[in-house]
Amino acid sequence: MKISEPVQNVLLALGAAALLGALFFLYDKTAAVDLRERNNVLGLLRELKETDVRWDVDVLRARIETESATAPGIDRAPAARKALENLDAARQAISSPALESALPDLSKVVLQKAELVGKFRDANAAARAGLDGLLRNSAEIAALAGGGKSRGALDAALSRVASVAPQYYSIAEESQQALESALADLQAAAVALTDSPRIKAEQAYNAGQLLLKNKPAELEFGAAVARLTSGPRLDALTFAFNQEVEATLLDKERYRVYLVAYASALLILLGYLGGNLRAANLSLEHRVQERTKELSAALAHLKESEAQLIQSEKMSSLGQMVAGVAHEINTPLAYVKNSLGAVADKLPAITDTVAQAEKLLALLQAGNNANPEELSRVFAQVSTLTVQLKQHKVMEELTGLVNDGLFGTGQMTEIVGNLKDFSRLDRSKVTSFNLNDGLKSTLMLAKHLTKSVTINRQFGEIPPVICAPSQINQVFLNLITNAAQAMEGSPGKLTLTTRADGDGVAVEIADNGKGMPPEIIPKIFDPFFSTKEAGKGTGLGLSISYKIVEQHGGRITVDSKQGSGTTFTVWLPLKPPADAALDA
């Protein structure tokens, strides 16, 4: 049946319209994505992450520093609220399921932490004011009080207050009863004082009560701030938001491929129909190439964001390690400080004795020209001071205090040495390294995580391996941290085993924690996969560890049974392959 010319024209027109409609549909699907608003969202999330980290640093710094001249920390709450308001505005401006679902909970956590930091700062300021007032008034009492029978009890009470108050400020849970007892002694000794020193004693007692009242609140709010962290939530939201943008760009890329294929077919058809469409073909291909460049640039930006997220996880791990080292150093530091303070209290008595002894020597050297009465008087004073020193056992006490101070500095030297061994800052990036030494230094730096854990070290005689020590120590720290967290709430036992294994060294890190079900074991090395509850992990630790071991030419395996514990085995060759990229 022959189709009439009008019908043919109509069919050709419909076909052309269908072809052009499909072309415009594909072209619309490849339209460039405006990344400015999305980059603004990523910037706000990074700002909130930085604010969260700085809050933790401010709290840690306020708890460690005791000087009254320390400048107050910056109030970061307004900036955090402003960032949350801008994020909410961005959420309304763009379509993002990740922001819609995560932003309310994130805002709640950030605002709650801002409130806790404010309460901590108030409690810290009050406790510090109490400490300053107690020490200042105690010093003024000593200057105002006269002599008398009660002077000895007063001096003893003031000495105890000056020694115990800073110790309580640094280690409140270990010195509270001692400070309460010292304040009670001071209050009892003040009864026999005249009006002026007695008023100062009452002021010192009130300042001490202010310190006792606010220091526990400071510790409580500080612990609450440490527990409440929005970092993992921010990392998860940043990753989810990046995934959305990447999915959009990949969708554009897929339609670009469709567009290229369709355009090529259409151009072939048009070329078959007539050569007069060649100019349109060249123009369309040029526009497709421009769109390809735009999408490639967007994908490169996403890969850069992913690298920044991994670096953020490394910095978070470093922050936790530094906080643990600061906690470990704080105790011997306070120990040395108190010992030196006690030594300073004993020096005046020794100085007086030496001065009188010099006078006696001068009189003895004068011979017959010396005044007998003066000689007798100075001799009596030297004898009295010497007897007092012996009775009070001043020299023995000074020796003990100096030894205690040396012991405290030795503890700090050991901690710093282990930190240096852990990071290997004084060595080349790639060197010969004994893995037993790496485990020892890592255990020392993770001591605050394993205080309630029994550690069984089964170190064998192993040869050194060629590796990047700082990277391998990072792997050990990640695995030991995961093991300690898996044993929370139960008597934990951590077993570390090293042995020579073929042409390499094997390290086993085993715990008796809760273990993992078999269905999730294949996923644990995937980026952002975590078995921890929301807010307690980013899922990057094991992924980074796997990458480090793989770059060294080694392997990392896991054996876990739910309810029985988990064993990670790291195997490293004695010498990495020639193409290994061991970037520090």
Number of helices: 14
How much of the residues is beta strand, in percent? 5-15%
The CATH architecture designation of the domain at 424-573 is 2-Layer Sandwich
Measured between the Cα atoms of the first and last residue, the distance is 79 Å
Structural class: alpha+beta
Q: Mind telling me the C-alpha Rg?
A: 36 Å
- Class of the domain at 424-573, according to the CATH hierarchy? Alpha Beta
**CATH fold call of the domain at 424-573:** Heat Shock Protein 90
- Tell me the strand order in the biggest sheet: 2-4-5-7-6
Biggest sheet statistics: 5 strands, mixed
- What value does the average pLDDT take? 77
| DSSP, total strands | 7
Layout of strands and helices, then pairs:
Layout: H1 5-29, H2 36-64, H3 77-93, H4 97-144, H5 151-170, H6 172-189, H7 195-227, H8 231-273, H9 278-366, H10 372-391, H11 394-423, E1 431-433, H12 435-445, E2 453-458, E3 465-467, H13 469-486, E4 492-501, E5 504-511, H14 541-551, E6 555-561, E7 565-573
Parallel strand pairs: 2-4
Antiparallel strand pairs: 1-3, 4-5, 5-7, 6-7
Helix pairs in contact: 1-8, 2-3, 2-4, 2-7, 2-8, 3-4, 4-5, 4-7, 4-8, 5-6, 5-9, 6-7, 8-9, 9-10, 9-11, 11-12, 12-13, 13-14
Task: Walk me through what this model shows.
- By secondary structure, the protein is an alpha+beta fold.
- The protein has a domain at 424-573: Heat Shock Protein 90.
- Helices cover 71% and strands 8% of the residues.
- It is built from 14 helices and seven strands.
- The strands form two sheets. Strands 2-4-5-7-6 form a five-stranded mixed beta sheet, with helices on one face. Strands 1-3 form a two-stranded antiparallel ribbon.
- Helix 1 packs antiparallel against helix 8, helix 2 runs antiparallel to helix 7 (195-227) and helix 5 packs antiparallel against helix 6.
- The chain is elongated, with a radius of gyration of 36 Å.
